[in-house]
Specification:
The chain has eleven helices and six strands. The protein is of the alpha+beta class and about 475 residues long. The chain has a single domain, classed as Outer membrane efflux proteins (OEP). The strands form two sheets. A four-stranded antiparallel beta sheet has the order 2-3-5-6, with no helix packed on it. The chain is elongated.
């Protein structure tokens, strides 16, 4: 009886283990099949605007090239610092000195002559130190290199911020093209419905062939607009993918509209003066010319170097009264007395470049102020225009629906329907175009006041910021 119960329990245990193994195998097979399907079909990636910023900051090759330029400018700074460091050199010489003496007069000298018999090994080495003590030209050279480093860092940040601006513009352009495709697809459906209705009325004898031709013309025009919108969408998506450094197989989702903080026009102008990249670059150019002028002016100031060396010889055969080891130390004074017209021309040229940069800076401030004022009122105008165009689009849509119902009732003609549909298409395109212009203008104003620079810093993906 016990053996029978044991055998039943063993059968149940084997059955449970077999069931668990089957479930595990089925689950593994399903996962493998789904993984293979996902790899073969491809999962479309969804990218938000903030993720697009991060991708561009990490993968855009223009930003990477600007980083290399910044690295090179940092090396120039260390090169300027290296001019005040000492030069230490080691010289080692290994010589075998041979003395040719005359043969002895004896007969045995044929065998014991000292010809080619005296070799004096001579080992010599010396340590030399050359230390600049007074070199005033190093100071403006270092300041110029430091200014160049700051300028290239600013250029890197500006390129990165400008890339983020381009990413934002292209991102909103892709979204606008998607909306345009939806609007044109809706227009195509409306044109198709009108075409089918016209065909039915023509069969019933309630329309003429001209109505059908007009309906077909409107249908094919709407179809062509849809094809054009899809091509624009593909081009905009390719441009965005190029900025992000990824393939064009991705989707975008609608972010919030570009928000401009409520501030006075004067505040926007002050922010632009503080953060505008072109204005900053001109200021750096002016400083660079001033430091270069100082470098050329310092060329007539004397330079003093300390020279010291330790010399050692291994053989005193040729200096019987001297010492084989000795120190030397002294100072060298270098002062150019006359260099023709090169120095004067160089100084005057750099002074002229500094004045040019100063005038360009003043004019750039005036132009920047005009741009900010123009963009400020342009954004306000576009925002009001969008409200009016939305009202116009709703009115055109209602008017088309009304004319379509009148056409069904035989009160309106096909020309009225085609005209109403054309007005609706124009209203939809005008609204989408105004929205895109508003986004671009708002982003441009944000770029002028340095918002994208702050966005770049907040991402914390760039070690140079």
């Amino acid at each position: 009886m016990k053996n029978k119960i044991f055998s039943i329990d063993l059968i149940v245990l084997v059955f449970i283990l077999s069931l668990l193994f089957s479930l595990y195998f089925i689950n593994f097979y399903v996962r493998s099949a789904y993984s293979f399907y996902a790899k073969s079909v491809g999962v479309v990636r969804v990218i938000t605007l903030n993720e697009a910023y991060i991708l561009a900051a990490r993968h855009n090759d223009t930003i990477k090239a600007a980083k290399e330029s910044y690295y090179q400018s940092a090396l120039l700074k260390w090169s300027a610092i290296g001019t005040v460091l000492p030069d230490i050199s080691l010289k080692y010489t290994d010589q075998r000195i041979h003395v040719n003496s005359a043969p002895a007069p004896s007969q045995s000298a044929l065998f014991t002559s000292n010809i080619f018999s005296f070799f004096f090994p001579n080992y010599e080495y010396s340590f030399t130190l050359n230390e600049p003590i007074l070199n005033i030209g190093v100071i403006p050279a270092y300041m110029s290199a430091l200014n160049t480093e700051k300028s290239t860092k600013m250029s890197l940040n500006n390129i990165s911020a400008g890339t983020l601006y381009n990413v934002a513009v292209d991102y909103y352009t892709v979204l606008n093209d998607l909306s345009l495709i939806k609007a044109d697809a809706k227009t195509l459906n409306e044109a198709n419905s009108h075409l089918e209705l016209t065909k039915a009325k023509l069969k019933a004898g309630l329309a003429i062939i001209t109505d059908l031709l007009q309906a077909k013309s409107q249908f094919y025009a709407a179809k062509q607009k849809l094809i054009s919108s899809k091509n624009l969408f593909k081009a905009a998506k390719a441009n965005l993918a190029a900025l992000l450094g990824i393939s064009r197989h991705f989707k975008v989702i609608k972010p919030s509209e570009p928000v401009l903080k409520e501030a006075s026009l004067r505040k926007y102008i002050i922010l632009a003066y503080k953060n505008n990249p072109n204005l900053k670059s001109l200021k750096f150019a002016q400083k660079s010319a001033e430091y270069e002028t100082g470098f050329y002016e310092s060329q007539y100031i004397p330079k003093v170097n300390l020279l010291a060396s330790y010399n050692a010889l291994s053989n005193d055969h040729f200096i019987p009264q001297g010492s084989t080891n000795y120190w030397t130390a002294g100072a060298t004074l270098t002062m150019p007395l006359f260099q023709g017209a090169n120095r004067i021309i160089s100084i005057e040229k750099t002074r002229s470049e500094a004045n040019q940069a100063m005038y360009n800076t003043i004019q750039e401030k005036r132009n920047l102020k005009a741009k900010v004022i123009s963009m400020f009122y342009n954004v306000r105008s576009l925002k009001s225009e969008i409200g009016a165009l939305r009202h116009e689009e709703r009115f055109a849509s209602k008017n088309y629906m009304l004319v379509e119902e009148e056409f069904k009732a035989g009160v309106a003609t096909s020309v009225d329907v085609v005209t109403a549909l054309a007005e609706l298409i124009r209203a939809r395109h005008n609204l989408l175009s105004a929205e895109l212009n508003y986004y671009e203008s708002a982003l441009d104003l944000k770029r002028l006041i340095g918002s994208f620079k702050r966005k770049l810093i907040s991402l914390t993906v760039d070690k140079f910021n």
